[in-house]
């Protein structure tokens, strides 16, 4: 199974890094530069923010945080109480102006307090490793199409 199929943020990665839901060579190069070990942390944080901003309103709000939690955990195992507790905990720790959402600067500040975010075993590295490992030029980003499009290294043509 191509790694993208198991990445919980595959649709967001596709949306953030592609144009018209199709990867061009330039899109691949741009993504590779962001996920490169040499990329500056602020650039990685910027793209992580964009991936986590599901509704693309320029903030990571309660709905975005809940989607993140549900994607990282098996949604069948997450009670409404746990979901609300985690969401409120993240906001209480990171929402500096108490508006129930994280601006980019608040997100950046929270990531600066989390040095593991940039480490190889971090979630962001998981995003980069699993996604870069399966890229094919002009690969459709529709998850249903990904299931129907075999990867060439898995016996596809």
TrEMBL record:
<keyword id="KW-0460">Magnesium</keyword>
<dbReference type="InterPro" id="IPR002048">
    <property type="entry name" value="EF_hand_dom"/>
</dbReference>
<keyword id="KW-0106">Calcium</keyword>
<feature type="domain" description="EF-hand">
    <location>
        <begin position="40"/>
        <end position="75"/>
    </location>
</feature>
<dbReference type="GO" id="GO:0005509">
    <property type="term" value="F:calcium ion binding"/>
</dbReference>
<dbReference type="InterPro" id="IPR051433">
    <property type="entry name" value="CIBP"/>
</dbReference>
<dbReference type="GO" id="GO:0000287">
    <property type="term" value="F:magnesium ion binding"/>
</dbReference>
<protein>
    <submittedName>
        <fullName>Calcium and integrin-binding family member 4 isoform X1</fullName>
    </submittedName>
</protein>
<keyword id="KW-0401">Integrin</keyword>
<dbReference type="Pfam" id="PF13499">
    <property type="entry name" value="EF-hand_7"/>
</dbReference>
<keyword id="KW-0479">Metal-binding</keyword>
<keyword id="KW-0677">Repeat</keyword>
<dbReference type="InterPro" id="IPR011992">
    <property type="entry name" value="EF-hand-dom_pair"/>
</dbReference>
<dbReference type="GO" id="GO:0007229">
    <property type="term" value="P:integrin-mediated signaling pathway"/>
</dbReference>
<dbReference type="InterPro" id="IPR018247">
    <property type="entry name" value="EF_Hand_1_Ca_BS"/>
</dbReference>
